[in-house]
Amino acid sequence: MHAALGEGTSPLRMVWTMAYNSEIHHRRSIRLKNYDYRQSGAYFITICVQNRECLFGGIENRHMMLNQYGNAVTQIWQQVPHHFSNVEIDAAIVMPNHFHGILILQNPSTVAPSAPDTTSSATGSKVKNPTLGQVVAYFKYQSTKHINNMRSACGIKVWQRNYYENIIRNEASLARIRAYIATNPEKWIADQLHSNCLSKW
């Protein structure tokens, strides 16, 4: 199974914010001081597997081949918009020991009303106006729980504690990041995360 998710599927409907950092995921994870991570915007996130272990599959002929754990990450990513009323997902890819994805947060006042999602909470309501960190935390927690259930484990970390993010400034930056995500498996041999991969596919 190819691991690219939702590539180029969602037009952006928001005011663009802040400057784009061209270093993409190689920069340190920095939360901008006094920046409101609830405001409308598109965010490029990278999350690494604990200890850089190749947990989600491997690269074959420059394509990512997902195992059952990689498929679980895909499934949880696709559930994110069902849990948050003003969050959309865009291009994403599950790599052997990390994940790249684009999250789009919209101001709740611009989001059309939708029917309650009875699968997202006990009250049947979606979570409204989350921060970027809350969305990422949900994704990490749910995927960890799902994977640990699959391997009959409890309390084992799947992801590293923090994550990397960049605020996407405009359509040109969005297109470049989508292309970066789509071609990530082709660049695996040169990726800085590849040299630290602890298991072989």
Question: Can you describe this structure?
Answer:
There is one protein chain. The chain contains three helices and seven strands; from the N terminus they run ββββαββαβα. With 201 residues, the chain is α+β, with helices and mostly antiparallel strands. The protein has a single domain (4-188), classed as Alpha-Beta Plaits (2-Layer Sandwich), CATH 3.30.70. Strand 3 (57-60) and strand 4 form a beta hairpin. The longest helix has 19 residues, at 132-150.
Keywords:
single chain, 201 residues, alpha+beta, Alpha-Beta Plaits, 5-stranded antiparallel beta sheet, two-stranded antiparallel sheet, 3 helices, 7 strands, globular
What class do helices, strands and sheet pairing give? alpha+beta
Q: What is the CATH fold-level name?
A: Alpha-Beta Plaits
Strand order of the biggest β-sheet: 1-5-6-2-7
Which residues form runs of ≥5 with pLDDT under 50? 6-29, 113-123
Whole-number tally of structural domains? 1
- CATH-level-2 architecture: 2-Layer Sandwich
CATH class bucket: Alpha Beta
Q: What's the story with the biggest beta sheet?
A: 5 strands, antiparallel
Count the E strands: 7
